[in-house]
Amino acid sequence: MAWRPTSCLQEGELDNRNSGKITGWMKFTGMKEKVTFELEGNFHRDIRGAKIRFTGDAYEGDFPEDAEKYMEGFALQQTGKAGDITAGLPPHDYGSAPYVEWYGHQNGRVVIELEPVQLEVIGRPIPACESDPISRKEQAQNMAGFLCGLASELGIPETRAVAVGETTAVERAKKVIANDKIRGMKLLPKNIRETLPPLYSQDGKGGKAVVYAKYFTPSAGWSWYVQEGEPVLDESGLNEIDYRFFGLVFGHEKEFGYFLLSELEEVRGPMGLPIERDLYFKPKTLEEIAPEMFKKNEEGGD
Length: 302
What we know:
Blueprint: E1 9-15, E2 21-28, E3 35-40, E4 51-55, H1 67-70, E5 77-86, E6 99-104, E7 108-113, E8 119-122, H2 136-153, H3 172-183, H4 190-195, E9 210-211, E10 213-216, E11 223-233, E12 240-250, E13 254-260, H5 261-266, E14 276-277, E15 284-285, H6 286-289, H7 291-300
Parallel strand pairs: 3-5
Antiparallel strand pairs: 1-2, 1-4, 2-3, 4-8, 5-6, 6-7, 9-15, 10-11, 10-14, 11-12, 12-13
């Protein structure tokens, strides 16, 4: 089971001053007691050997109404293995923003993503030149173990589930279920499906066209901003077999294009992580997202 409790996080501390071990605590809205931590592993090199103190989205009292329900079943003692834990500082071994991930014996993979202003480094980290980067092979093995656990939970025989930190080799329906569990979310929930206007409906609006959803790779710089979408039907025209989106893609460059839900389901970033939906994204116009693209058009007279 995957958890993303950032919206319920009030505050916490994690300590990696003892090599190979991470201890600490976190307070969550919806839980009466502190959650304690005893994890195997280390922080990334930007904060290895130091302690971090951080606040979450619920620190100022802004938390979801269903926080208690969301946190139900979250263990008070988290043991297991550290995933990628970084403040997003140089040498930037893993992204440029605070990211806290662990693979717990109790609740599986848990991810907390923060803004730089929400995290404070206490103490002096070990100089980056004196330690090695986190092993990507080891992290892939952590993810593989998690995927195998999901396969078992889904009733998929191990002979049909190949977990290599990149994919689970099963038919697409079961793969979608597993991916949703890894993400802790659905890529195309009912509310997004009902909100998206049909293809071509925003033609001619330019920078005023509205984006309704954002997808991204957590371990790379790609993002997909969705403007429109509609089902792809089979030859009979009765059964939905996929879903086609149109929007702005930030990849090697910024460009508009079509992409399928099945493609988003299949893609993995360099760390083997699936594409995710930005749960905090609010509809906004294209010129708000990429003003430089439309400023050029205005200057050119288009």
